[in-house]
Design brief:
Layout: E1 3-8, H1 15-25, E2 30-36, H2 47-57, E3 64-69, H3 73-79, E4 84-89, H4 92-108, E5 113-118, H5 128-136, H6 150-154
Parallel strand pairs: 1-2, 1-4, 2-3, 4-5
Length: 156
């Protein structure tokens, strides 16, 4: 059984994230959506709220598990017996940043493999930062997030 983690801050979860999860489901038996604490980012939503929102999207999907964590992703993988890290790529600058992280993770644990998946072209402009700004400034963000969570995000 092949299990993987799709880690991120997911603040908020976007259609780009959903695209990567759907692609990953074709490869892995179980996927842990790992909501990590990122001290360098100022979250819009609490980690509990993000977990609740993502669970709402995948409530009928038995392949998806949503967990939060506050440690290195490599350590979370070891604790949960995960050997694959899924990373979505929108563009070449994403690749540069993600490659550095993958090499660092490999240096920490050679048994953990990072898999890069390009997002579909139509989602390549979407970022959580952009959606977060649209939410804060009362802009139109509906077409960038899963419909299951629109009400949650609009109530912010």
């Amino acid at each position: 059984m092949k299990n993987a983690i799709f880690p991120g801050s997911f603040d908020p979860f976007t259609l780009g994230h959903l695209d990567i999860v759907k692609k990953s489901e074709k490869i892995f038996d179980k996927i842990v959506i790992g909501i990590g604490e990122n001290d360098s980012k100022k979250p819009l939503f609490s980690i509990e709220k993000r977990k609740k929102i993502i669970e709402k999207i995948f409530k009928k999907n038995k392949k998806i598990i949503v967990k939060d964590y506050n440690c290195l992703t490599v350590d979370f993988c070891k604790i949960n017996n995960l050997r694959f890290i899924i990373r979505g790529l929108r563009n070449s600058s994403d690749f540069q940043k993600e490659k550095e992280l993958a090499l660092m993770n490999e240096a920490l644990d050679k048994s953990i493999i990072t898999l890069f998946l390009p997002c579909s072209k139509k989602y390549s402009i979407i970022s959580s930062s952009l959606v977060k700004e649209l939410i804060l400034k009362k802009g139109e963000f509906n077409k960038f997030v899963p419909k299951e969570i629109l009400d949650e995000l609009k109530s912010f």
